[in-house]
């Protein structure tokens, strides 16, 4: 009786005018959404009013395609830098978490540690860092690399990067700041910890020149599904954002990660697994399908084939669009994603066109087209049967797709006792049900 | 006869609880100001209501002193990262410029180009970048360096860094974004410029994945007073923030920079020179002096000697505090600052204690203690006689010191027709009277 002990956690994935590749062409879409701050302010307020745990910004540090016919037809490069947008949204919101993606391959840990600690301070404890290693050569070429650093090397660097950042966040003990005007003593320097890190990739002395942040440390989010990614996540992640095609995949990933977490001496509940969900909501199934087809019809074939080529790490423009997916060469990029797509094509016997139509919408994430009750059923199943602790809602277009989810699906989840009606806590950590780290000093 | 053609430009230098080293001990100071976002939001709104051109945030990427007795007695490390705070302030203001300091030595140009372009977009054209090369070993040690990179090397990197950033800001021509839903064409790729920079320090392909920003490009600010710093400023700076002790120094610097600017084919007015001013305002001179002495009396000698040692690049703790300044070894840090301080001590025959008291307040900047009319006289002289285009107001303590300036000095400047009563433009560039760069494409 009363509400269940555990409820679904929800993130709102805010990407320009929506997650669907042709969303910007939707009649109700704001085509300039990518660089329109008012658009994001409006979305953040809607998501907060709906009691989402967090808003989530993806990122890349480059224009991932140099194929001009593709580039000309997408809104891809018309975006804002997440760690600059989220502080602005922090000033306009009070309770919702703020998760920004930032690359461990193309940043310095001291800089990122300062920025996330600052975001945590100005938001009153709502910051999260989605650590990615970046997967494209186009990004590497903006940072002095001829070729992209190899997958294993990126993950090795990421692991050390993470430890340096967390170490810097522990520079100041919980009561290090005395600020005693009478004696003139500002800090208790007994509670100062100089990191003195010397590792393979980084030498970082410390301490951080930003005070201890309200959450002790910002929430660490990860998205890697490869072996190296899972290994790092098992040791360090507190939230995992992941793409699955089927419930079996989700359950197997969920159980693997929870095992790894426990093998690292953590509790299973110390990490929240939140797959991406691409929901298209209709009052009837037919209405939902019609909404989806409307978006699909806006995909230019040039965009579809290029998008697939880019995601799969191989140029498919020379192959017949109505023929099968050819065998793929191994790439240095996101290995797990290539495998997911090849498996999908093989399983459902898809042509290149069918595959690009399949992935252009949800782009590897679970696509759910249906009524509020059908969508709630699926979320409930994944949540209750060991596939997810929550979900990242990748709205097909914005704001309309998010509105549909908020107005139609959330009431259904609440009727079932599966989603909150009010925030439980003040910080992102509290709302997610994650432990507050105690200071080392 | 109407307002004069040119008026004074004003920046509000916002540093924790004020520029005076002991400001945090002031009875009216908010001791936690450094990490208190509400404090900065309040200051930004006050400065905007007063029609300041910009607020200005200094920065360092490390705790500059490892001398614990000093560290314990200052608020130094209790700060926020500027490029994370200014976006949040952008969301709460509408007209005031937002200038953040960021180091060319410890960042990558692609990252900074994105962040400043984003700040420019979300603020509607109010972003400024204060390019610094960073001057302390404590900072270098947070970024894999055993020793700080040499002065000339830092400036060589800074020059190339600047060119890459500005080049990236020119990735998209003025009308590159078509966003035509009907044809499906988002970009005019004819107006896309791929930088393809390959230089000594950087290889950066581009293009930037952020749209062209409202100002064409954010305003470039610099503060270097060394030969290398002046050379870079002459070619690239649009605003110069500088420290002077005397009007003669100010005039000589002003004329040197304007010459250099013209030698680089720019117009003298393409750069605004804004020395720092540390004003202590009283209704009478005696009241102003009393306010100043109250702050000076709060400086712990441990802090004074350490501060001076740190600024001058040599440990003075072993020398008699009431003896003269010893001859100084050459350092790799801020050469120009060391020279300024040695000249000051020599000119006025100061002991170490007298020197630290002298510089603890204004820290190398022009200190003006007096009535509103006396302070206005000095600003007017510097402005009208070739010493300055404007000033950065380094309030001794905050918010009180800024309030004094706004309530007492600004009305006096306005009576003289020397400062605006309303913003002239919408962007920082427009308010400063700087040209809007036209897109290359």
Please give the share of residues in helix of chain A. 25-40%
Low-pLDDT runs of 5+ residues of chain A are none
How many separate domains of chain A? 1
Largest sheet, strands/sense/barrel of chain A: 8 strands, parallel, barrel
**CATH superfamily label of chain A:** Luciferase-like domain
From the N-terminal CA to the C-terminal CA of chain A, the straight-line distance is 42 Å
Q: Structural class per helix/strand content of chain A?
A: alpha/beta
Largest protein interface, residues of each chain:
A-B, 81 and 81 residues
Total number of helical segments of chain A? 15
The name CATH uses for the topology of chain A is: TIM Barrel
Q: Identify the CATH class of chain A.
A: Alpha Beta
Element order, helices and strands of chain A? Answer: EHEHHEHEHHEEEEEHEHEHHHHEHEHH
Oligomer: homodimer
């Amino acid at each position: 009786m009363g509400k269940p002990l555990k409820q679904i956690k929800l993130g709102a994935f805010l990407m320009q005018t929506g997650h669907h590749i042709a969303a910007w062409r939707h009649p109700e879409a704001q085509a300039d959404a990518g660089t329109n701050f008012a658009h994001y302010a409006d979305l953040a307020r809607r998501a907060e009013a709906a009691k989402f745990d967090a808003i989530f910004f993806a990122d890349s540090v480059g224009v991932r395609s140099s194929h001009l016919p593709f580039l000309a037809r997408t809104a891809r490069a018309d975006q804002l830098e997440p760690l600059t947008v989220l502080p602005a949204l922090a000033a306009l919101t009070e309770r919702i978490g703020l998760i920004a993606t930032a690359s461990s391959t193309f940043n310095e840990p001291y800089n990122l540690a300062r920025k996330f600690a600052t975001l945590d301070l100005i938001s009153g404890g709502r910051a999260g860092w989605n650590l990615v290693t970046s997967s494209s050569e186009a990004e590497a070429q903006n940072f002095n690399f001829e070729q992209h650093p190899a997958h294993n090397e990126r993950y090795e660097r990421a692991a050390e990067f993470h430890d340096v950042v967390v170490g810097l966040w522990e520079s100041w003990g919980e009561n290090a700041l005395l600020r005693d005007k009478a004696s003139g003593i500002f800090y208790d320097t007994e509670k100062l910890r100089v990191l003195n890190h010397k590792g393979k990739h980084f030498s970082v002395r410390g301490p951080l020149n930003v005070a201890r942040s309200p959450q002790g440390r910002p929430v660490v989010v990860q998205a890697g599904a490869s072996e190296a990614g899972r290994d790092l996540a098992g040791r360090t992640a507190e939230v995992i954002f992941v793409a699955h095609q089927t419930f079996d995949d989700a359950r197997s990933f969920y159980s693997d990660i929870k095992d790894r977490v426990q093998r690292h001496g953590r509790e299973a509940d110390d990490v929240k697994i939140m797959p991406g969900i691409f929901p298209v909501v209709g009052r009837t199934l037919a209405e939902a399908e019609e909404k989806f087809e409307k978006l699909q019809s806006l995909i230019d074939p040039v965009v579809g084939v290029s998008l697939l080529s880019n995601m799969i790490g191989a140029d498919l423009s020379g192959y017949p669009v109505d023929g099968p997916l050819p065998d793929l060469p191994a790439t240095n990029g996101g290995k797990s994603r290539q495998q997911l797509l090849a498996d999908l094509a093989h399983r459902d016997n898809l042509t290149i066109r069918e595959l690009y139509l399949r992935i252009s919408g949800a782009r590897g994430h679970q696509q759910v087209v249906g009524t509020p009750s059908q969508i709630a059923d699926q979320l409930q199943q994944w949540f209750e049967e060991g596939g997810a602790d929550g979900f990242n809602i990748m709205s097909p277009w914005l704001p309309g797709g998010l509105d549909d989810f908020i107005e139609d699906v959330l009431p259904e989840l609440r009727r079932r006792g599966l989603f909150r009606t009010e925030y439980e806590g003040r910080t992102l950590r509290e709302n997610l049900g994650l432990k507050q780290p105690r200071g080392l000093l």
